[in-house]
Each structure stands twice: as C-alpha cells, then as structure tokens.
Amino acid sequence: MTTKTSLLKVILLGDGGVGKSSIMNRYVTNKFDAHLFHTIGVEFLNKDLEVDGHQVTLQIWDTAGQERFRSLRTPFYRGSDCCLLTFSVDDNQSFLNLGNWKKEFIYYADVKEPEKFPFIILGNKLDVTERQVSTEEAKQWCQENGDYPYYETSAKDATNVAVAFEEAVRRVLAMDERTDHLIPTDTVKLHRKPRSAATCCS
Amino acid sequence: MAAESVHKVLFEHEGVFIQPSSDEDAITQDLLVSGSLRIIDRDGEIIVEYRPLEDTVDPSNMLCAGKDSSSVVEWTQCPGDRSQQLLETQHSYETEWDMVNAVSFRKKPCTNGEGSMNHSHERSRWAFTFSVGDLRSITVREEGWTFLICKLKDSSSLPALHFHQGGSREFLDNLRRFALLTESLDDETCLLLSTPNKTLSQSFENLLDDNNFGIVHKFRKDPYVTTLGGFSKVTNYLFDALRGAEEQHQRPPEEVADLLGEVIPGLEINQQEEPGFEVITRIDLGTRPQVTRREPLSVEDWAKYQDPEGRMINISQLKQAIFKGGLYHAVRKEAWKFLLGYFPWDSTLEERKALQRTKTDEYFRMKLQWKSVSEEQERRNSRLRDYRSLIEKDVNRTDRTNRFYEGIDNPGLVLLHDILMTYCMFDFDLGYVQGMSDLLSPILYVMENEVDAFWCFVSFMDQMHQNFEEQMQGMKNQLIQLSLLLRLLDLVFWNYLESQDSGYLYFCFRWLLIRFKRELSFQDVLRLWEVMWTGLPCQNFHLLVCCAILDSEKQKIMEENFGFNEILKHINELSMKLDIEEILQKAEGICLQIKGCKDLPHSISGILGFDTNVCGSNAEDSGSPGPRPRQRQDACSNGHLRESSSHNSCSVAFIS
Question: From the UniProt record, which GO molecular function terms apply (chain B) (predicted)?
Fold first, then answer.
C-alpha cells in the first residue's frame, strides 16, 4: 500500500438551511455557531486526516443552496470525488429534494458512471426534537437510489460528522483501489456491485 | 532566404520581449526589445523565429506610450445605441448576443500584418531563428509574467523570451504539436524537448511508458499545486492524456474555470484559439494621485444644507462632503432616506410627512396581503411557501452578533422577516433571494422603523435588482466590467490571474452580490454604502473599490503563486480584515488616475460614466461583424493594455 497524500474533493449539496456550512465547520474547526451566516457563493476548507493508513487531504466545498445561484455554483462540481447530499431531518421538503440535488450533481459534475459515483446521504439536525423525516424513510430512499451510506448527523453536538467524512474517504479510496487494479476496459462493468467498494480497503 | 522558400506561419504572437544587454536571471530595467514570435513550417522544417517589431524601446518610453494613439482600438456602437438602455432592455442571453452582433469596431492598420514575412528590410540585429529540432530545453520562469529560456542542443543559450502580454502557454501548446515536452527530473521548471517522428497521440503513449511514468505520477499526485506556475495548462494537457488510463484522479481547476466561462459569456479569456488575434493598446495611466479623507458629516453640518422649509440645498457640495467623509451615525437616519432616493432632495418637510403617510398605508396594505394568507392557501402556493421558508432560515442567520439582531425573539428579527416578506409582495417575481437579508439588515438598523426601512430597502434593491434576477445578469456584467478595469490598471496581475484560470474573477462574487456586506465590519459597511450612494466620484465606484482591495492583495497572491483554489480561499478569508478608509482612499485615487488619462478606451470610460458623448464620429463604422468579431492585432509592441482578444471583443463591445 502506498503512503502518498491524496487530495480528495468532496462537495456538500442540499437545500438552503439544512446545515451544510455547519457540518463543514464542525468537522474542520470543531466549532458550532447556530447563527452562522448563510453561504454566499462558494467556500471550501481543507482538512488533513488518515484513514486506514492513507494520508488524505480533504478539500470540502460548500455552496449556496438556493436555486437562483445554480449557474454560478455548478461549475464547482467538477472534479469532485464524493458528494455529500444533505437534508435536515426536521424539514421534509429538503428530504424530498435529495433526488434533484443528485440529478444536478451528476449532470454538472459530468460523472462518467453515475451508478458508481460515491454519494453519501446526511440527515442533519438530529438534535432537534420535532422530526419530519424518519430514519426508516431516509434509509429506504438511500436503499432505492443506489444503496448509499446514510448518516444521521448533528453539527450542533458533533454526532456522526467525522464518521461521515471518514466514510467518504473510504469510498473514494475504494474506488481508487478498484480502478488501480483494473486497467480501464469494459471489464469494469463486471464489478459494478456497489457493495464491493466498502470492503476492498480493509 | 525565407522569402524564397515555401513557408507557413503556424503560430504568431506579438508583445514578446527580449533584453539583449542583460543576463537572463537578473531582470534589469535596461534595454527592452519587443517583437513577435512565430512558429513557421519552412519546407517541412519547424522553425521558431523571433523578430523585433520596430525600434527598441526603453521602459520609460513604455510608460508614456499612450501618446501613440494610432495603436488604440476604438470601440464604437451603432448610432442610437446607448449602453445603459441596452443593459436595461436586455432580457435574455440571446438578446445579449444580438447586441454584441450589432456592435462593431474600428481598427488602425497594423504595421506587421501577414505580409511581414517578406519584409526583409527592417531586420534588426536582435532577430534570431532556430529549428525546433535543435532545441534542447525550455525553462519556464515566473516573474509576475512568464518568461522562457530556450537552450539549444549545442548548449548555446538564446535571449530569454518575456511574455509580458501572455501567450507563453499558447506558444508551448503549439510547440507541443511538433515536439514532446517533458519535465526534467531535477528541475521541474525545465522542459526537455524531443522530436519524435510520430503523431502527438503516439507521443503520449511514450509518456505512459514505465520509464516516464515518474513524471506522470508526479503530476497526478498533486495537480492542485501548480508547480509550474502559469504553466498549468501543460500539466493539464498531460493530465488529459492520463484520463483515459485512470478514472479516479483530481481534475484541474481549469475545468471549473472553463465552465465559469460558459456562465459568464464574453469573458472567454482563456480560450484563445488563435493567439495571433490580439489587440494591443497602450495606455499611460500616469501616477496615482494621493487623496485624503475627511471627517464625517455631523448633525450641525447637515442642518446647514437645509432651507427653512426643509429642502436640501447645495446638494452637489453636500454629496461631495458625504463622499469624502461619510456621516456621523446620528445623521444617517435622515440622510440615508435622501441618498437612497426615498425622499426627494427638493421636498419640504411637509411634503415628506405626506409622503411618509402614503407610503405607510401602502406598506401595510402589502404586509396585510401575506399576513392574511391562510395555511390552506399557502399549501397551494409553493412559491410563497419557499420564500417564507428561506426568509425564516436566513433571518436567523443574518448579523446575529449585532445587538440589534442578537438573542432569541429579538424584535429586530421579526422586523427583518416582515419587511422581507412584504418585499415579496412588492416584487413577487423576484421574491426573496439569498443575500437580500444582508442588504436589508444595515438599513433597518439605521432606520429603526419598519416602514422607512422597507422603502429605503426598495430603493436600494432598485440598484441591486439585476444581481438577484434569474439569469444573474447584473453579476455577469459586473464581473466583465471589473475584469476590464483590472486589465487596464494592472496588466501583470490580470495576466497572472488569467494564468491561474481566475480571469473570471469569480472570487469577487460575494463582494459584488451584496456590496461588501460580508467583507467589512458592520460599521464599515454603513460607511462604505453611504459613500457609494452619493454616486461620486464616478459611476460604478464599487468596482474601483474591488480594484483597490485587489491592489493590496496582488503582491501576496503572485509572490505565493496562488492557484485557482488558493486565490478563492485567500479572498474569502479577507472578510473582516479590511480597512475601509484605506480602501476608499485608494479607490478614489484610482478613479482620479483613470480620469486623468487621455486615451481611455471607450469601454472603460463607459463603465465609469466618463463618456458623455456616446458614439460620435465612429458610429459609421458599425459594419457587420459576425457573432465573434475577429481582428488583426494592431502594431503595438509594448502595450500595457491588451484591449481585447477576438472573444473579449464581445465583452468590450457589450459595455462600451
């Protein structure tokens, strides 16, 4: 196994106000500010970490969620290694919009094989008491849309935030492993079972 | 002789400099020779040729070059076309391009056109040629601009080629059609040449051989670090070759930039297909005048500008005073209503009271409209529901550390919410767009009154409306205008940004969308805005504010060789670290500096509103250029301003 440091680009997408910036800030600076400004334009933060012996620099991109900013947001999708689709468990609409976000990402990131791209789903604001989206509903969506990993997070009390980013890294590395071993021909199609990605890294 | 043989010019770029009398590494401000660089196919042999354009020049001549107006390309528009009107009547992307089509340009004859190959007369002693096959290596250096040091196989060295007007990448790109360029193992800025008799694609197969994989691997490992400085396209090129071989890798930011270029048409600065087609003008900006700021205007000062009935008098002097010093806070509540246009300057106190009564009724009528929508109704009105939902979220995330909005259930928050909701009823098509709460918050803070704040906000939104519209045309226009200004003011820096795929100035997005609201402390935002609302000292002063900030940051950005991502990050992180008085001082200085320039291109004077006579005598030249007008470059060897390339011409035309 190599010891190179890889730069991985992950991008947080989801409706306005679901907590994308808060998740990023919790993970990178371990701080939470309930009254953080909403994001204008795009921002990113870097974080170094080690996952399963790999040195990785995560470059986490955060965008403005409103529809209006789409044309100036989507160019930044290019080159993403992983996409964290985020909704808020107390906002059903943000959950219903996951599919649109996924579609927008695949289209603008120009993903070659969308069915293989590592998406991770985050249901944020686990700390709030009044949920509108149940865990079962969310899991079912993930199951039906590509067997994506699902994490219920709270940027406020730090629940599952680091775990989710680490999983993102694993997924990307697993993709890397697979393509490193398989010289790209059509044979990769034989290995499209999504689950295989999770195990080949251990 | 070249004139007799069969040759084809494959590449041509002007504005390449050599310094014959100095050594390559020390950039002494000695003699500068400017000329053009060509790649020529001469009977099948690929030749690189450098020939000086005209007289040798020294740097002092370069700085006062504006007197040679023959090299200035004048942009003209069809008669009757007023740029303002055009901007306002624009509804779609298509109309924008229609308009571009209607714009033409006039150019002066160039002294170095295609026929120059046959001109053997003025061949000065600085000309040189060599065969690509004799070339051993090219070293790429950055000094705010790119320069290339070519070494031949017989170990002789040629004068370094300084690309003061860009074009080094295009040169190398073209060279790569005939030779394989690989990074030297012990010096990453040094490119070794080999000229296999194979096609380019075969060359890349060589690259992927085991022997060469180290190089490739190095690129792959950290493509985001632009080790080659402005030379990133070469790495990207290699990268593209690898793409087929390995699916998972980082794509260069260049791709992002290319996409941004599609979003902001008219700024396709990196897409020069024909590098020869460049127009170069030289502008002498002169020195930047030093200006001083003054004390803010006090309540007593303000009262002096009022007649007994309450009309404001000496308005231009008053505006000048506000521009130079801003307002003490106690004056703001009244003065802002005038500055924003809610109160007419010549209204009496009585008239204003009557106006406020009317406006109060009107406000509450609209407020009642959304207030009286039942839950049932809202369920069937997705747009209202979406507006409300986002307003609720954003109000909770706007200036919450400000006393006026801090804590839970602060009345300030309710007012912010209600005014934004009422604005949705005032302009339902626009509704609520993120960023609007940032624009309202300082106004409400100053007004401390729901109705006054609403109408002042409406006035401010009149100015900012285009920023928030569906196509974000206001943002796109401003980015293009800013790019033009920056290019005039600082070609070296502009070229640097371009070399880092940042010529679109995307990193200024937040500055422009909400007029520096997030960049400055709350009190400084109040100061900047009141200064801007005077409309002084020129139109679009906020773009000069951008230039002033960038002027302070350019050294760091270039010295540390920031790439696309680092520039974005650096600019984002300037937030709350800026000094407003310093910025205003510099921005005003820049304005005076540009104003004092005689040979200002129309594009620039149009942006800043210095153009009172539009069109004038050049209007008859509004021929019929195609959708992408191309033009020969003008013969100007040492220009400070690259006015436009073939694509840029669209953007220049657009605002001229």
Answer: GTPase activator activity
Contact A53/B at CB under 8 A: no
Name the 3-class secondary structure at B640: coil
CB-based contact A38 B393, cutoff 8 Å: yes
Q: Quote the CA–CA distance of B528 and B580 in Å, as a whole number.
A: 7
Contact B22, B109 (CB under 8 A): no
Q: For an interface test with B, give the residue of A78, A156, A171 to mutate (most B CBs within 10 A).
A: A78
In sequence order, the β-bridge partners of residue A48 are A57
For residue B305, tell me if it sits in a domain: no
B47-87 confidence digits (pLDDT tens): 888 888 754 433 333 322 233 333 322 333 333 444 434 33
Nearest CA in chain B to A78: B256
Distance from CA of B471 to the nearest CA of A (A): 8
For B242-251, write each residue's pLDDT tens digit: 343 343 344 4
Specify whether B252 is located in the same domain as B283: no
> B445 and B402, same structural domain?
yes
Domain that holds residue B232: 196-263
> Is B211 part of a structural domain of the chain?
yes
Average pLDDT of the residues of chain B: 74
Out of A7, A41, A79, whose CB is closest to B510?
A: A41
Query: Is A32 touching B (CB cutoff 8 A)?
Result: no
| Number of domains present in the structure of chain A | 1
Examine residue A125 and state whether it is found in any structural domain, yes or no.
yes
For the entire predicted model, the pTM comes to 0.65
Closest Cβ opposite residue A78 in set B259, B434, B468: B259
In a domain, A63, yes or no: yes
Strand ranges (E), B352-433: none
Using one digit for the tens of pLDDT, what is the confidence trace for A173-191?
A: 998 776 655 444 333 333 3
ipTM at complex level: 0.86
Nearest C-alpha of chain B: how many angstroms from A40? 6
Number of separate domains in chain B? 4
**Considering the domain boundaries, does residue B301 fall inside one?**
no
Q: Between these two residues, B323 and B164, which has the higher pLDDT value?
A: B323
Any B CB within 8 A of A172 CB: yes
pLDDT at B33 over 80: no
The predicted pLDDT at position B219 comes to: 41
Within a domain: B320: no
Burial label for A16, CB within 10 Å (0-12, 13-18, 19+), is: buried
Residue A109 belongs to domain spanning? 6-181
Please return the burial class of B350, using the count of CB atoms within 10 Å of its CB with bins 0-12, 13-18 and 19+.
Answer: exposed
